Amino acid sequence: LTGKYNDGIPEDSRYASASDPFSSGRAKSYGDQQWLSDIENTKKLQPIAEKLGTDLTTLSYAWVIKNPNVTSAITGASKVEQV
């Protein structure tokens, strides 16, 4: 939701150096119809985040935390700077 993968897979990203099946599978699917659909749907959330005075990442965390069907929010940082 940060937009990091909107224009390609950055060289320093988790997907670029993926060795696990999930991440390497997602990296291989970059640019396919599902990927493009996900990017377009994510972009539609930007005006909502802006109206609320926040960014997409924070909006996403808020949705997860507020969702009564979610019991805990687990975040995944791949770099120290993200913590």
| Low-pLDDT regions | none
Q: Give the termini distance in whole angstroms.
A: 16 Å
Number of helices: 4
Percentage of helical residues?
A: 40-55%
Q: Please tally the β strands and state the result.
A: 0
Mean pLDDT: 86
The structural class is: mainly alpha
Beta strand %: under 5%
Structural Rg? 14 Å
Report the biggest beta sheet as strand number plus sense, adding barrel if it closes: none
Q: Please write the string of helix (H) and strand (E) elements.
A: HHHH
The backbone outline, from C-alpha atoms, is globular
Structure commentary:
The chain has 83 residues and is an all-alpha fold. Helix content is 43%, strand content 0%. The chain contains 4 helices and no strands. The longest helix has 11 residues, at 33-43. The radius of gyration is 14 Å and the shape is globular. The model has no long low-confidence stretch (mean pLDDT 86).
